[in-house]
């Protein structure tokens, strides 16, 4: 083994941080051998130094983030959130240190600034753990597909929502029941909005799109819709029509007026049962890449959890420490393509609407007229039989491909129609 | 962009080689930017220099392999087969050059020799394209999971046989019909034995096991059985019991008498319909890794074909050229664990047997007695009704876990029994 030593500073000792410290200790010989350098934990920055951290030498604990950074060759940032994570990572990079992070929020918001700092100071930035936990999709996009051309990224990148949708589908539960179960099992937070409203997926979507298309994409570029309005009826109807409902992060290369653009979005989507993403159940993540040369690739695995995320962090630590010891650096951010982000209103999609309409004659024809007026053609209409005498019926309408603008205009007309009682759900359809 | 130039020598210009040359030309700017060095094709060794290779400058063509090697910084070996591939790769490595290969046969047979040459001469050896085409599983094992511990590798690593089994399952075709269709579509060779008898999968199994367990594993260590005896009846019976039939490459960490060993095998296997490998259809490949920290990971994609394999070759070229230009090298072979390979007779498995037995009373009890005599317990027995007067019945027997030795002893007894007309199929069962 090499005589070289790489000092590792850990910022944050929560669920993932504790696992990183543990594996770094228990597997030190193997990890050091793989890195070609002795890996030594040189400091751990925590908010509360009084709390016992099992397995971490208390002499390493400090609340002084800067001291941990300055004393390390490689900094692992696992504090989460925007600050002080951003400032700490910038400080480390500006001092030429290698940074490994699992912090999707800071990357999706301050990615460009961090990448510029890494480039300017010949430092390295690794973030495998920031997208889909243990699933090595960041490597796939950053290195493995370096010679290929990505045309579409479709991902299930939030395990909480995938678990909830899966339980709604297999157990017939309501959204509220499935969320409660997910919280009971620790798959969902007590305050679940970052997951169920799609913000976590949107941050990952921005990171994936930046890598796939060599373009700066930030979380604010990603139109986002969560799963809180999905009902068991939507899921049952999807099944009958040969689909499953998944919360998908999407980043697609599209042509708009002869110009390449990136169409982005996070939304509940009907996925054909034959698509490889349809079979991804429970809290797992999976990302499908459609590429020019390699064809379709899928990466699948645990998207969260202490040990899986720690595994991804440590793969980055081994790569980063290897480069510190033997030369080389992380792949540089490459935003040379700088494709424009499509106007969300112009992105083409297909929708399936579930409408609660009056039993009065004319509801269906009014809906069809609204589509016709917008030049949107209807792919299918289904109106399940209701008991005679009921004053309300349900109508399922699937459209052919049209722009969001056109589709939104239809929805606006329907919302005002006295014959349409409620637009019960609006789901995107993947082909 | 860097001023550095990396000269690339290509050995072999078949389906994959032509694609590599094409993409290297068409995407040169992008590939060079990613590598941090200008990539230049400096020579192409082919058997027949008179044949036109579209897109390759004829001045680069030569039949002199050594000249191409000596004139290059990085050598891409795509000749296939053992010789002259082995000699050429050794020559390149001994001169400290970076070698990228897609040749599973030479790696599964001469891997240790090649790795030693790379280590001794500070050269790099890359082989992403040798296992599962475009699917980045070699990276996953070599680098991404560097800090983890693999407990099981299960893979569909041969697209030809997966296509055949899939067609038998969905179309109800016989093996012969499905093979003919695969040949017609170019998914199977005119001489298909390397695929259908499992040898291609066995070579990949040896490479995967070497990487997963840091142990030298050669193709001759892998007990191998192909798919030529599978019938539509096996597949139909599997479906009824909740399984699909897949040709799996398996490499598992097992404990034998308190010692860690590796159990290996390639064989047709009943996979539960709920397992992620059950949904891998058509000519696709997928590898599932069960790991200590990251949990279950799956890699999925095109396992063969010119462009997908070229994509994998070029990802290695970019990594290798990057190291030539900026320092660093490929991960070193690490065979420090040197786990023993399990005696195939002692490997535990579950079997499902399909027996053609006499209608005479006593056939079933004789079969059960044979299991009992070997101490193997029977998990289930199924005997479909036959028309009265028929002189033959079919019997499906599933065993609980037992050693191959025990199971083979049962098969030997049954083969001699006058009441058992034929052992129609023997399938392993994955839990």
From TrEMBL, chains A, B:
Its EC number is 1.1.1.3. InterPro entries: ACT-like_dom_sf (IPR045865), ACT_dom (IPR002912), Asp/hSer_DH_NAD-bd (IPR005106), HDH (IPR016204), HDH_cat (IPR001342), NAD(P)-bd_dom_sf (IPR036291). One of its GO terms (molecular function) is homoserine dehydrogenase activity. Signal peptide: none annotated. The keyword Transport does not apply. Its cofactor is a metal cation. It catalyses: L-homoserine + NADP(+) = L-aspartate 4-semialdehyde + NADPH + H(+); L-homoserine + NAD(+) = L-aspartate 4-semialdehyde + NADH + H(+). Keywords: Amino-acid biosynthesis, Methionine biosynthesis, NADP, Oxidoreductase, Sodium, Threonine biosynthesis. Residues 352-428 form the ACT domain. Pathway: Amino-acid biosynthesis; L-methionine biosynthesis via de novo pathway; L-homoserine from L-aspartate: step 3/3; Amino-acid biosynthesis; L-threonine biosynthesis; L-threonine from L-aspartate: step 3/5. NADPH binds at residue 104. The keyword Mitochondrion does not apply. GO terms for biological process: methionine biosynthetic process; threonine biosynthetic process. The active site is at 204 (proton donor). L-homoserine binds at residue 189. Catalyzes the conversion of L-aspartate-beta-semialdehyde (L-Asa) to L-homoserine (L-Hse), the third step in the biosynthesis of threonine and methionine from aspartate. Belongs to the homoserine dehydrogenase family. This is Homoserine dehydrogenase. The lineage of its organism: Bacteria, Bacillati, Actinomycetota, Actinomycetes, Actinomycetales.
């Amino acid at each position: 083994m090499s005589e070289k030593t790489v000092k590792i500073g850990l910022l944050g000792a929560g669920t993932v941080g504790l696992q990183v410290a543990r594996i770094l200790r228990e597997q030190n010989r193997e990890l050091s051998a793989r890195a070609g350098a002795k890996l030594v934990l040189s400091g751990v920055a925590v908010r509360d130094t009084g709390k016992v951290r099992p397995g971490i030498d208390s002499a390493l604990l400090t609340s002084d983030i800067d001291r941990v950074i300055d004393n390390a060759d490689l900094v692992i940032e696992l504090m989460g959130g925007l600050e002080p994570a951003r400032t700490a990572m910038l400080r480390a990079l500006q001092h030429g240190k290698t940074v490994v992070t699992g912090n999707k929020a800071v990357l999706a918001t301050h990615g460009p600034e961090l990448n510029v700092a890494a480039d300017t100071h010949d430092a390295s930035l690794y973030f495998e753990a920031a997208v889909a936990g243990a699933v090595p999709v960041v490597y796939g996009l950053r290195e493995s597909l370096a010679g290929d051309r990505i045309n579409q990224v479709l991902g299930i990148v939030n395990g909480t929502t995938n678990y909830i949708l899966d339980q709604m589908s297999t157990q017939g539960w309501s959204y509220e029941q499935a969320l409660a179960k997910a919280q009971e099992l620790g798959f969902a937070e007590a305050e679940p909005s970052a997951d169920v409203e799609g913000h976590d997926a949107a941050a990952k979507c921005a990171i994936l799109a930046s890598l796939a298309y060599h373009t700066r994409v930030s979380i604010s570029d990603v139109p986002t819709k969560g799963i809180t309005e999905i009902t068991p009826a939507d899921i049952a109807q999807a099944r009958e029509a040969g689909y499953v409902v998944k919360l998908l992060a999407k980043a697609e290369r599209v042509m708009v007026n002869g110009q390449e653009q990136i169409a982005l979005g996070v939304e509940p989507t009907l996925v054909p049962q034959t698509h490889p993403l349809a079979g991804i159940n429970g809290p797992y993540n999976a990302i499908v890449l459609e590429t020019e040369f390699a064809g379709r690739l899928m990466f699948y695995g645990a998207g969260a959890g202490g040990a899986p995320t720690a595994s991804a962090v440590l793969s980055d630590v081994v790569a980063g420490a290897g480069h510190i010891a033997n030369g080389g650096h992380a792949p540089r951010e490459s935003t040379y393509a700088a494709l424009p982000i499509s106007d969300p209103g112009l992105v083409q999609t297909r929708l399936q609407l579930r409408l609660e309409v009056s039993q009065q004659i004319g509801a269906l024809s009014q809906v069809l007229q609204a589509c016709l007026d917008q030049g949107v053609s209807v792919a299918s209409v289904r109106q399940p039989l209701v008991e005679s005498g009921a004053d309300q019926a349900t109508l399922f309408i699937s459209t052919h491909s049209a722009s969001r603008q056109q589709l939104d205009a239809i929805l606006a007309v329907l919302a005002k129609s006295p014959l349409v009682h409620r637009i019960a759900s609006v789901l995107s359809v993947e082909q």
